[in-house]
Amino acid sequence: MLPDPPLSKRPTAAFFLLAYIVAVAIGAFGVAWARSYQAGFTGADEPAHFLNSYFVADYLRHHLGTNPMGAAAEFYIHYPKISIGHWPPAYYGILGLLFTVLPATVAVAFTINLLVAVLPVLGIALALTLLCNRAVAIAGVIVYAVTPLVFEGCVNFMADQPLTACVVAATGLWIAYVCKPGWGKILGFAILGALAVLIKGNGGLIALVPVFHIVLTGQWKLLRSAKPYCAALLMVLAVVPWYIVTAKIAADGFNYAAGVDYALKALLANLATLSNNLTPLGVVLALLAIVVEFRQRRQTPVRWIIVSGMLSMVLATLTLQSIVPVDIVDRYMAPALPAVVVLSALGGHWVLSWLRRIDAPRAAIALGVVLTLVCSMPGFQHIVGRAPKPDMALNQVSSLQASGQPVVLAVIDGPTGAEGAFIADRAVHDPQLERYTVRSSKLLSDSNFMGSSYVLKYATAQMAADRLRQLGVQQVVIMRPGYAPAFPHSQQLRDAVAASGSGFTLTQSLPHRFRPGVTEVYEAVGAVHPRIAAIRDFGTPAKVANLTKLKN
Description:
alpha/beta, single chain, five-stranded mixed sheet, disordered N terminus
């Protein structure tokens, strides 16, 4: 066995910049490949994340000093897609501040998303430069940037990659604290840890990182200091009040019941996710690195502190996702992926070191290239097979509204993401909140937050048409991906407005780009007067009504 190599020097600012630029370039290719700038928000959660951020900017610009819950309730009645409460507010606060100085457009949103999504590579570059060398660090950055999880984090406007960046930074500060305890480091860890939890609920995994790390390193003496307890108290004071207020709202999104069955199912699925992103070879290399570094931990303990910190991130993520039964989704493993990449690259570095020891430097270089390519293969395969995001012609619908008389009341129908994207597009063009948008999924059906208790409200299309007339709907926009109805109520709505004598006429049929489908725009015939009181009553669910009570 080779003697444990000493830590390398810290990477320079120029090297950090190089690593970041490499990751940004790969992510930018992914955004262009998926047509994110053209298609915009297509996932179910994307428009909600954007609109939450836009609401914060709108509040800061126009309503600062008023009751924020009342402002949120009013905004929701007009544009029912904001969902602060289901998700914590920290990332929306950051984006909202940016949107006060930058235009709230798809292009700006995805540019910010890309720049944030690849931030974890800075932690990868630091760890691998310390443990190995710059060549291995760049290889790790490339492998990470092309993984399917990171690719999707770049092309979709989500909160998983910002959370991951926060977890990586917090873990780095914890490792630095263990190496040389100080108030600045532990308070920095507490602040970043609280920020992680207030970005997404699964950011709570950061509280488990010190637990696993102390067990793995045997640094029990840390428990004799007041610093970790002060940090824990700071995190609790920052986080717990929010989750006490929103616990019921967040729990609506849980898809499973906690228990052994869920834990085993989630653990196996999440381990498979890590393997699928780096190949089984990448996981084997990571395990090899753990074994080698563990056996030599007493010779150079600082190396083991770093390696065990990476392992702690993985264990913390797996543990939380196996305990909290919210769902089993690949992207929930995003916080563990940077650590697995570091461990995998470190395992590869050890293999190459053994080759160099037997005087085979060329073979070592060739094998290093092969290992990088093999571990990148899931990403390459994902990119090749990834269809572009569908462009449902939202911009064309908006321009029609702008060129004609204002549409005070519109009904939007389509997949959940399409409904949200239309609402977001209308909202940013209506800063004075003069218009109302109604989701057909709420108007014509009932379901819980996750859509698992879906039922139609009306038995016939005629009854649905009567409801449209009662509210004074002026415009109905129906998005039909693949030329098919998105839901049963979608077909009911189309039958209602397309029927003879419905009071609506088809004015536009806009073909989708990048995917088959069409967006149909139906306009009311003649003058229609929206019933604002009825719309507001319909658009105020119980949760929002409860919030408005807090205004007094």
